Structures are given as structure tokens and as C-alpha cells.
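#struct-help
A.M.: can someone run this one for me? Single chain, 121 residues.
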Amino acid sequence: MNHAFSYDVPIYLQIMEIFIGQILRGERARGDQMPAVREVAMIYGVNPNTVQRAFAEMDRLELTRSERTSGRFVVASDEMIRALRAEQSKEAIREFIGRQKALGMSCDETIDMIRKGWIDE
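D.P.: on it. C-alpha cells below:
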């Protein structure tokens, strides 16, 4: 299965985004083993070095840790997960507000639309 990657963002960052999203949604919990680099490379149709770079960066951010003989595991603390969720939420809100302003929408109109959309979900 090949993934449709964007051309304007490095693929390793997009792979990180996929796995960080899984961690933030609770699909991968602390202690869960990450898939092997080669497995991820095959699934997404990318070079194993690209996946290794993404995973190494996740290790550097202390979201995961590589254990030489047994693989790579999720180690993100609850506090780190809360902070990452807040950071990503703030960024999404900034982008959304920018788009709403570009459309000429007022704050009150936007809030009303959000309330209606939230209820309809």
C-alpha cells in the first residue's frame, strides 16, 4: 500500500506525523512496540533510510526509544502527550482562524458554525 505523500514536506516528517498521530490518539500506548523500519518502508513504499530518519527523530524527541535487541518502543509520557496535543491543536486553530478571516467570516459567525458542526457530529 503506497501512501499519498505531499511534495512540499519531507517524507520523513510526514511519516513522523503518521506515527505521532497514532500516539496522540492512543492507538499506540506507552510500552507498545513500533513496527520494524523495513516493514514501514514496505507499507509506505519508501526507502528504509527515510523511515529510520523519522524514527530516529522520534527517539530524539523522547517519544520512542530503541532497544538494541528487542526493537523500538513508545515511551512518551502522559505530560508529553498532553503538551503535543495542545501544540497541534493550537496550530490547527491558528490555520483555521486564518482561513476564516480570509473568507471574511467574523469571530461570532465562526463560533456559531463550530457549535452547529460540533452538535451535528
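A.M.: thanks! The mean pLDDT is 93.
D.P.: also worth noting: DSSP finds five helices and two strands in the chain.
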